Amino acid sequence: MIRMVLALLFAGSLAACQVAPRVTPESSSNAPEPEHVHVPPTPVAALAVDSEVRPTPAEEGVDAPEAELVTAEPPPKVALLEEPIRIKRASFRVVDPPEVIVSRQHADDETTHVVHYRVIVEEGLEGEATELTRTIDVVLNHSDGWRKAGYAFKQVEDDEDITILLANPKTVDSLCLPMQTGGVLSCAARRRAHLNYRRWTQGAKTWGSEVKGYRSYLINHEVGHLLGMPHMKCPGTGAPAPVMLPQTKYLDGCAPNGLPTTSERGILKRWKSRRADRWKKP
To answer: What sign for the dihedral angle of Cα 151, 282, 225, 118?
Structure first.
């Protein structure tokens, strides 16, 4: 009897071992994770920071900048001629035309009139010479600037048609007489565009904090006068301001604008054909 009981117990233990086999690491590797375990996704912001991945302009819905607008190197520093020149009581230094600029300045065709301009800076303001020279070149030779009215502009050191100068406010006041510039305005007179240093560095209230755009307006406005253009009026609220509107003082409802409007270019183009002798030196 005892032997039978022991035999039955031994058989039950053997059956239990076969139903519940031993669990090993190898047998558990393919087991599914319990449904209640949740692994949160890694935040997108963290991915961007950790892997230095940044969305492209197209992914952000922003137009990518044109390659031609990217400047690989800063413009070379310009040289100044050693001998200063005097205008009234002020001394100026002449900017030696950089070869990199002069080599690409050209007339579009035989109907284009080339205006030779000289750049000078008042002594004490020589540090602005490079930026001034580069900006004048870019503005005057812009494809939508006065060149679209039949003019091209070439920088020279002498035998110039016009002079573009940068001077302190008091000097501009003196050179612009009898016009009253009051230390705050620029002017065009005697074949010279007198750019007020205060306006060049600070812009104008009408333009807000946009100084570079204001400089484009300033150059086009004063050179526009030298080309024969008068002041213009705002054509309507919200419209781009004519570059010959005195934007330093007011906008009359127009939006700030640094390039000649289509109307202005058309006016100058018609006047150009009537004033062929304008550039004969006295």
So the answer is: positive
How are beta strands 162-167 and 113-122 bridged, if at all? parallel
Residue 65: how many CB atoms within 10 A of its CB?
A: 9
pTM for this model (two decimals): 0.72
3-state secondary structure of 71: coil
Phi, psi of 26 (to 5 degrees): -70, -35
pLDDT tens-digit readout, 207-259? 999 999 999 999 999 999 999 999 999 999 999 999 999 999 999 999 999 99
Distance CA 259, CA 262 (A): 9
Q: What is the pLDDT of residue 274?
A: 57
Query: How far from 27 is each of 16, 18, 30, CA to CA, in Å?
Result: 19, 16, 7
Q: What distance in Å separates the CA atoms of residue 62 and residue 56, rounded to the nearest whole number?
A: 9
- Other C-beta atoms closer than 10 Å to the C-beta of 94 total 23
CA distance 222 to 187: 6
Mean pLDDT over 97-123 rounds to 84
CA distance 247 to 259: 12
| Structure tokens given for 42 | 């890694």
Q: Which CATH class is domain 75-274?
A: alpha beta
Cis peptide before 282 (omega within 30 of 0): no
Task: Supply the mean pLDDT for the chain.
Answer: 78
Q: SS3 string of 75-87? A: CCCCEECCCCEEE
Structural domain spans, the chain:
75-274
Instruction: Collect all residues with Cβ–Cβ distance below 8 Å to 229 and sequence separation of at least 6.
Output: 244, 264, 267, 268, 271
Q: To 10 degrees, what angle do helices 211-226 and 129-140 make?
A: 70
pLDDT, one tens digit per residue, over 9-66 is 444 444 444 433 333 333 334 433 333 333 333 332 222 222 333 333 333 333 333 3
